Amino acid sequence: MTSSRIAEIAFATPATEATQAWRSHTAKFTVHWGRAGAVVSVDGEIDAANASAFADYAKQCADCCEWLVVDLSQLTFIGTEGFSALQSVSAQCASTQTQLKVVPSSALRTLLRICDPQSRLPLVGSLSDALADVQRISRPLRLVP
Fold this sequence. Notes:
This is Anti-anti-sigma factor. Helices cover 40% and strands 27% of the residues. It is of the alpha/beta class and 145 residues long. The protein has one domain (3-134): STAS domain (Transcription Regulator spoIIAA, 2-Layer Sandwich), CATH 3.30.750.24. Strands 1-2-3-4-5 form a five-stranded mixed sheet, with helices on both faces. Mean pLDDT is 83; it is low at 1-17.
C-alpha cells in the first residue's frame, strides 16, 4: 500500500474519529485526536520500509493541529531513515507553527546520541509531560487565506 493510499484511508474523517490506526509489517501507528491536537503513537519498529509512511502519517496530523505529540516510548528499533522521518515531521511542524513534542524510547535515545548531538528534537520525559506542555502553551492565532 502506498503512502498516499495510507494517508487517504487514515485521514478520511479525522474530525469524526477519536482514534485511527494503521499497521505495517513491523509497526502500528495510532493517532488519538484531541480538541486542538493529536497524539501519534508508534509501537514496534521504524525502519526503511515504513519510515516514509510514518512521516506522511505524522505530517498530515500536524497539518490539522495546533500541537502534535509523537509518542515513541514503545518503539523497539529506529533506523537512520526513522530519524530522517522525525526531522521531516519537525520541519513540517515548524512550517505550520504546530507545537511538537517527542516522547522517546531507549532505542531512539541511543540513535539521537549519534544523529542529534545538539538535541534539536523537542524531547519530553513522558506522554503526560508532553500533554501538560502542549496544554500550557497556546500558539497565536493565524489567518487562513
